[in-house]
Amino acid sequence: MNPISTEQLTAAQEWRYATKIFDPARKIPAATMAALEEALVLSPSSFGLQPYQFLIITDRAVREKLLPFTWGQKQVTDCSHYVVFTARTQLSEENIASFIKRIAEVRDIAPDSLTGYRDMMHGNLIAGPRSNVIPEWATRQAYIALGNLMTSAALLGVDACPIEGFEPEKYDEMLTLNGSGFASCVCCALGYRAAGDKYATLPKVRFPADELVHRI
Amino acid sequence: MNPISTEQLTAAQEWRYATKIFDPARKIPAATMAALEEALVLSPSSFGLQPYQFLIITDRAVREKLLPFTWGQKQVTDCSHYVVFTARTQLSEENIASFIKRIAEVRDIAPDSLTGYRDMMHGNLIAGPRSNVIPEWATRQAYIALGNLMTSAALLGVDACPIEGFEPEKYDEMLTLNGSGFASCVCCALGYRAAGDKYATLPKVRFPADELVHRI
User: Fold this and answer.
1) How much is the pTM?
2) Does A91 have pLDDT greater than 90?
3) Is residue A192 within 8 Å of A159, Cβ to Cβ?
4) In this structure, are residues B165 and B73 in contact, taking their beta carbons and an 8 Å threshold?
5) Structural domain includes residue B150
């Protein structure tokens, strides 16, 4: 692995901002979008269980339908690719079994050799304390993917706007998620900033570093 | 902004894994750690409110004390820098006022010009539906920072292990967080993989991309 420089990382983080106005004419090239999808797929998650699905919406009509349930934020329709993060609403024995099967398949090992791992997940998520908070546990994993996606996008020079201001129940209805075992939890518009977006040049506001970071 | 290549991004994501064994002798250089701290500070958050604090723990004695409340995971003591993410347990009018003051200061504008923005935050977080879920809302923002941190670390060639398996109440007690308005929500060990960590070379397990990503 050939690391990037600290300057490159910081420059990307400084360049990034929650894009208010996207240039509707600019689309993310296929190879760039493929790398961002790969970032989503390779995102880390609790036990590796990936309790989410990502909907990448380019269909104009669908986006128009989502707009009124997104506080009218035009990023939904003007961006190049609109990502809706969905998280599992429940986790079953079968979901864990599928994951064990997948590990065995990818690593070419016997599923029986993973009994300890399966029991650990079972004890935590099915029989243990997290069984009561599965939707929130899954949503948190989706937020890791969101953080990963925004940083990845910035590094590739792609603009993004995270969107929590939307009506999840309406999204679930529009995107026929009801009964699927997944529910929408957060969104991210991806594309390129319009020349006229004044927010692009405003100084970034953060509390002083010594209020946010404490060394012990 | 000078973007990195899609190959560099994907290579970093492939290289990254949840490190099980850190080399206790290797420490993250100061300039690298400064860039990772900057990534935390520059992480995006809801309304820009940054409802979190990051504790970066290098003190050996503190880490030893946290170990038994972390399922005995040795990453806590063997890593170079151990990050505990804390999230706000409540959000007050004063917190919003401090943020407005900070925006006005950084952008050199009159606080009064931000009344609309303040009212929007107030309506959502103090008077509105999110007022009932502040700890979870804040935790989700911390998870964005966690995703950002893990991707940033990978790109700099720094290993990481996210840790959700810990006892938050015990951490809060040990780290004297009770009464501070912040509570621990997730952790991340940072450092360098030990030569003997067999997980480093195991094939990464993900469900097939077409099960995780849906194009609409």
Assistant:
1) 0.97
2) yes
3) yes
4) yes
5) yes
Query: Given an 8 Å threshold on Cβ–Cβ distance, is B151 in contact with A146?
Result: no
Residue A36 lies in a domain: yes
Q: State the residue range of the domain holding A71.
A: 6-90+133-194
Dihedral Cα A162, B43, B54, A42, nearest 10 deg:
70
Q: Which two tokens stand for residue A161?
A: 């706007």
pLDDT digits 0-9 by tens, B124-178: 999 998 999 999 999 999 999 999 999 999 999 999 999 999 999 999 999 999 9
B114, part of any domain: no
Nearest to A168 by CA among A88, A73, A20, A69: A69
- Which residue of A8, A63, A155, A156 to mutate against B (max B Cβ within 10 Å)? A155
- For residue A121, CA distances in Å to A51, A60, A117, B29, B52 come to 13, 40, 6, 36, 28
Alpha helix stretches (DSSP H) within B42-178: 60-66, 75-78, 93-107, 115-121, 134-155, 168-174
Helix (H) or strand (E) holding A143: helix A134-155
Residue A207 belongs to a domain: no
Q: Cα(B160)–Cα(B60) distance, rounded to whole angstroms?
A: 18
* B32 with A6: Cβ contact below 8 A: yes
Taking only the tens place, the pLDDT of each residue in A102-157 is: 999 999 999 999 999 999 999 999 999 899 999 999 999 999 999 999 999 999 99
Dihedral sign for Cα B177, B182, B183, B188, please: negative
How many CB atoms are closer than 10 A to CB B43? 26
The pLDDT, as a whole number, for residue B1 is: 79
A146 closest CA partner among A157, A135, A160: A160
If one counts the domains in chain A, the total is 1
So what's the ipTM on this one? 0.97
**Nearest C-alpha of chain B: how many angstroms from A181?**
13
- CATH number of the domain encompassing residue B49: 3.40.109.10
What is the least distance, in Å, from the CA of B74 to any CA of chain A? Answer: 17
- The Cα–Cα gap between A205 and B99 comes to 9
Query: Do the chains contact at B209 and A38, CB–CB below 8 Å?
Result: yes
